[in-house]
Specification:
CATH architecture of the largest domain in chain A: 3-Layer(aba) Sandwich
Number of helices of chain A: 9
Helix content of chain A: 40-55%
Distance between the termini of chain A: 48 Å
CATH topology of the largest domain in chain A: Rossmann fold
Order of helices and strands of chain A: HEHHEEHEHHEEHEHEEH
Low-confidence stretches of chain A: 1-5
Largest sheet of chain A: 6 strands, parallel
CATH class of the largest domain in chain A: Alpha Beta
Structural class of chain A: alpha/beta
Largest interface: A-B, 60 and 60 residues
Oligomer: homodimer
DNA sequence: GTGTGTGAAAGTATTCACAGCC
DNA sequence: GGCTGTGAATACTTTCACACAC
C-alpha cells in the first residue's frame, strides 16, 4: 500500500543496487532459471542476502517465504521501482569519442532510454551520424529543447564547455543531467545531477594501491 | 605522527572527495589564489566546511587557525594522501570508441598516470595508434603483463569478454582494475576493483525522475 | 575576530537474528 | 526444513559546536 507513494524514504545507496539486481536477474532469466533466493542472488551480485531483502522491503513484499523470488515477477517489480516501465528521452551533448561510445551502447534502448539527439560544437562533426541520426550544431540546442521533451542530458563535452552547457539545459528545464566532464557542476535550479569522473576513479585506485 | 602509517582507518567515502578537493584546488591555484578557507572550498566543491576539515584531519593538520589553508601546501599534501607523488602504469584493454576516448583524456598523464599499452581483439584495430602507440593484440596481453609492471588495468571491452579479461589480469597480479563493462566482476584473489556503469547511472536517474 | 581541529551528537546504512509463512 | 520480511543492534558518515591557535 505504501508502495505507490513517495520514494523519498528510500536510502540513496539502495537505488544503484536495484539496477544491479535487475541486470543480474535478466541474466539469470536468460539462463532459464525461474526462481531465486536472496542468498543465491547475493552471491552472484557480490553482496549479502539481508541487504537484498532489506532493499526490496522498501518497495513491497515480492518473495515467497521458504521459496524465494519468482525471477519474472521480481524483474517486473524492479523495473517498476526504477521507473523503467516507461521510456525516457535522452540527448548526448558532445559527440566526440566518448559521446559516440555512449551512443553506440546497446543496452541503452533496451531499458527504455530513447536517444533522440546528439550535439556538437565542431563543424566537422556536425551532420555526421554517430549513432542517433545526424549530429546537430550546439547552437540549435536551445530550440531543440523547446520543441522536445528531453528527460536526460548526457554531457560529454570538454570540461571548458561543460558548465555552460549544463546551465543551458538546466535553464531549459531538463530535469536530469549525467555529466562526464571533470567538473563539479553546480546549479541554482533543482536538477538531478550525477557525475562520472575518470580522474576521481583513478585517484581512488591510486589511494588504495599506495596503502 | 600517525600521518605516515596505515590508511586503513580512513572512511571509504572520504577518498573520492579528496580527489575533488585536489582538482578544485588546482583550479584555484591556477587563478592565482594562495590561501583558502574550508568554507570557500566547500562552496566551490559543493559540500560543507566541516566535511572538508574532518576529511583532512584523518591525514594531519594542514591548515592555520584563523587563516585557512595554503593552496600550494594543501595540493602537495593531498597528492601525498592520494598516492600521487609517484607514477602508476596503466593499460587499456578494449580499444574501441570508449577505450580511445579514455586514452585521449588529457588529465591522464598530468596526474602521474602513465598509459603504457592498449589492447584489442579486433585485427582491424590492432596496430593502429589510439593514443598510446600501436594497439597490441589481446593474445599478447599475458606476456606483456609478465614483462611490465602494470598497476591499473582499465577494461573497456564488450561485456561478453570482460570477465575473462579481468580474470586474466588479476591472475597476472595486476593489483587494480577499473571496469567499464556492464558486469559485476568477481575474483578470488584480492584486487582493488572499481566499476563505472552507464546503465546503473541511467537507471538511477530514472528512479529520481519517476518520483 | 577568524577559521581550524576534533570530540560528541545526529543521521544513515548495513548486518544480525528471529518470528512467521511456505 | 527453507527462506522471506523486519525490528533491533551495529557500524559508518556527516554535521554540530566549541576549545584553541593565529
Amino acid at each position: 500500500m505504501a508502495q505507490n507513494s513517495r520514494k523519498l524514504a528510500i536510502p540513496a545507496a539502495t537505488v544503484p543496487r536495484l539496477s544491479q539486481y535487475l541486470r543480474k536477474l535478466q541474466e539469470i532469466q536468460s539462463r532459464g532459471t525461474t526462481t531465486i533466493s536472496s542468498r543465491l542472488l547475493a552471491d552472484e551480485v557480490g553482496t549479502n542476502p539481508a541487504q537484498i531483502r532489506k532493499d526490496l522491503s522498501y518497495f513491497g513484499e515480492f518473495g515467497i517465504r521458504g521459496v524465494g523470488y519468482d525471477v519474472d515477477r521480481l524483474i517486473t517489480e524492479l523495473k517498476k521501482c526504477l521507473g523503467l516501465n516507461r521510456s525516457w528521452n535522452v540527448i548526448i551533448i558532445g559527440s566526440g569519442k566518448l559521446g559516440t561510445a555512449l551512443a553506440l551502447y546497446r543496452g541503452f534502448q533496451r531499458q527504455g532510454f530513447n536517444l533522440i539527439g546528439m550535439f556538437d560544437a565542431d563543424p566537422e562533426v556536425v551532420g555526421s551520424d554517430r549513432g542517433a541520426g545526424p549530429v546537430l550544431p550546439i547552437k540549435d540546442l536551445k530550440k531543440f529543447l523547446q520543441e522536445h521533451d528531453v528527460h536526460i542530458a548526457i554531457v560529454t563535452t570538454p570540461s571548458a564547455a561543460a558548465q555552460q552547457v549544463i546551465d543551458l539545459v538546466v535553464d531549459a528545464d531538463v530535469p536530469s543531467v549525467l555529466n562526464f566532464a571533470p567538473i563539479r557542476a553546480s546549479s541554482e535550479k533543482p536538477v538531478i545531477l550525477r557525475q562520472v569522473d575518470l580522474s576521481t576513479e583513478l585517484m581512488t585506485l591510486s589511494f588504495y594501491l599506495d596503502k
